[in-house]
Amino acid sequence: MKTQNLKQLFKATALALFISSSMPTFAAPTNQVIAVVGDRAILKSDLDQGVAEAAHQLQAQKKEVPPVEYLQRQILNQLIIQNAQLEQVKRYGLKLDEKTLNDAVLKVANQSGSTSLEAFQQKLDAIAPGTYEGLRNRVADDVLIQRLRQQQVMSRIKISDQDVENFLKSPEGQAAVGSEVHVLHLRISGDAAPEELENVAKQIKNDLNTSNDVKALEQKFTNEHVKIEGADMGFRPLSAIPSELSARVSTLNPGQTTDLIKAQDGLHVLKLIDRKGNEQKALVTQYETRHILIKTSEIVTPENAKQMIESIYNRLKAGDDFATLASTYSNDPGSARDAGSLGWVSPGMMVPEFDKVMQNTPAGEISQPFETQFGWHILQVQDIRKQDMTNEYQKRMARQILGERQFDSELDGWLRELRANTYVEIKDKSLDDKNQSQ
Predict the structure, then answer these.
(1) Which domains does the chain have, with CATH numbers?
(2) What Pfam family is a match, any one (predicted)?
(3) H-assigned helices in 26-96
(4) What is this structure's pTM?
């Protein structure tokens, strides 16, 4: 078995223990350290569980299980990469709020047939006490690693304006950003083993070559453990389809289907029926906005900042000039130099709290003080307009497609560099690839 296949298997089985009732239970962890990665330790129990999960999945797929020594080295390498990434998560101070974690865990719960976190916790802890907490920790690590990868890998992707222009002039680019598409969409989910879901998805993809009847496919493949949801989406702009799906559809010719698309909510397959020119303009509401920001610091406490912004707000209500107060007191140097002006702002450009206040403030009005992660603000919406953002949208879509093409190769390069630059000590020398003949 090739190493790359094991890498894919390890990723696919990261949560297998928790979403497959057929998975065996494992012995309690021991404290034997087999490897050190930065400030983190990999225990013998971590390796044993990873090997058991991988072997279980290979057996379920009726594939040959490699010798245990080989499997141990490959799984250990994956654990090292995982821990090296978690070291970077700690270094960059990435955090996960409770709501985001709960939402991520709930998606796993739904895949296993549980409709609430409470029911899911009871189900898992009935297997062994602490299983649910272990799941939450693993999901949190997974989400944080994905955020780290997006942050680090996206910064390595370089797409020039010329790259964008060339793409938009190509047939593929014209199809991607200038068309409406008629698409069939099927989602495969459920509490069946991952390999069973993948086999069903492959059969559906094959049937789509000769059939457009999504309802028939739903009935044919849905069972107690596999759920098929199909929809004929009709003609719609590519912009109305989630970007991770539209980027796949944009490269298809009518009659073709996408490869299997893996997501947290299951496997997706799309078929392009037809495409036509889209003449609809992308009109976006924009707000001409200026603001005053008071930041907190070692000297200015949150309470002090709140008092300062309230004092400024009272002066504005009493008739003082916004531009003068912004230039004098705002801690946002970029806008303070321009009387607090942020120019024309589109929804989504600012943090959610700022966005919400901006969109709910009438033209000519001043908002009440409000807080964001940057400090305390007052904003004024000076004017509101509808702007044709079609060209900007097309360029953004082009960058998205070109970026997705580069992401996997840049990710591989970043992971290799991370592994090479991370302190790793393998205590059990029999597990060290350096001591093995290739």
Answers:
(1) 3-155+426-435 (1.10.4030.10), 179-277 (3.10.50.40), 283-388 (3.10.50.40)
(2) Rotamase
(3) 44-60, 68-91
(4) 0.52
